[in-house]
Amino acid sequence: xxxxxxxxxxxxxxxxxxxxxxxxxxxxxxxxxxxxxxxxxxxxxxxxxxxxxxxxxxxxxxxxxxxxxxxxxxxxxxxxxxxxxxxxxxxxxxxxxxxxxxxxxxxxxxxxxxxxxxxxxxxxxxxxxxxxxxxxxxxxxxxxxxxxxxxxxxxxxxxxxxxxxxxxxxxxxxxxxxxxxxxxxxxxxxxxxxxxxxxxxxxxxxxxxxxxxxxxxxxxxxxxxxxxxxxxxxxxxxxxxxxxxxxxxxxxxxxxxxxxx
Length: 261
Prior knowledge:
By secondary structure, this protein is of the alpha/beta class. Among the domains are: 61-167, Response regulator (Rossmann fold); 189-261. 58% of the residues lie in helices and 10% in strands. It is built from 8 helices and 5 strands. The protein has helices spanning 22-35, 46-58, 71-81, 94-103, 120-129, 148-156, 169-224, 231-259; strands at 63-67, 87-91, 108-112, 138-142, 159-164. A 5-stranded parallel beta sheet has the order 2-1-3-4-5, with helices on both faces. β3, α5 (120-129) and β4 form a beta-alpha-beta unit. The radius of gyration is 31 Å and the shape is rod-shaped.
């Protein structure tokens, strides 16, 4: 029981009605749970620390993938995106882009339409077919004014936008920033969902153990009431029952602290 390591279990041979010393035990357990980070300490800096952590999560760097077979275009896009101060990956073909996407989580992909071999449309189709990459937003970049047919094809394969070169650097940065923020918020939500699931599992484990302790306590109480037993044995059973009862109260105290988080 790691949550109670090092904590004394206080028991008395005065029966279960008053259970002297139990308030002190509950107080110790509550303080122990708080200092281990199980819950905020009143008057402390837990709320401030939580706010700082949330702020760091929302400002974390994200990964951006730029795909173009022309090195000059890659250099130009890198210069445009540098003020965003994010992690930039470059690929010179659709195949190279797919390999990178299977190894990294990207916030957005800037994808050239006209490339030899696997063009932008085919690359986007592969991206949207895979469960691991299907939710990554794709912005198409093209050097020619898109026709109605090519624009429709781009959106049909899952693109979220279509920009024509040369494009306004401010406009491109603004569009990329939107998907950066969306990626950060989605990541935080996933982390919070995982944490909530873990807290539920921990609570269920604590509740199950508390039920087992209650069953043991009831059994010990029954044994203590058996007539004709040795007086020393009856006293030992009562003492053990007090200890089990104190542990059960400790579990209830920790559960109440964690339930207020």
